[in-house]
Amino acid sequence: MNKKLKKNIPIVSIIGPANNEAGSICSYVEECIEGLEKISCLYEIILIDDGSTDKTYSNMKLMKEKYP
Predict the structure, then answer these.
(1) For labelling alongside 50, which of 6, 20, 21, 66 has CA 20 to 30 A away?
(2) Are 39 and 10 in contact (CB under 8 A)?
(3) Could you tell me the CA-to-CA distances from 44 to 3, 8, 17, 52, 53 in Å, in that order?
(4) Is the overall model pTM greater than 0.85, yes or no?
């Protein structure tokens, strides 16, 4: 979360399960952040790798580094 906790600010959690989504997980995260920033809220994005056999988890780690 990147904003200080204040009264009357919405708090949003997005949960995204993923299985072999290496090709789309980065754009998914970036689109979520873009939309959430527009509504000026506190947010978290929780990604769940459900046993992917591709580079989904690696891409999730990249997004975590880019958007801590």
Answers:
(1) 66
(2) yes
(3) 11, 17, 14, 22, 25
(4) no
Q: Is residue 41 predicted with pLDDT exceeding 90?
A: no
Q: Which two tokens stand for residue 10?
A: 């919405």
Cα–Cα distances in angstroms (integers) from residue 16 to residues 4, 5, 11, 62, in the given order: 24, 24, 17, 16
- How far apart, in whole angstroms, are the C-alpha atoms of residue 42 and residue 17? 21
Q: Look-up: residue for tokens 């998914």?
A: 28
> Which pLDDT score is estimated for 62?
96
- Which alpha helices (H) appear in the chain, and where do they start and end? 25-38, 56-66
Residue with the larger pLDDT of the pair 63 and 2 = 63
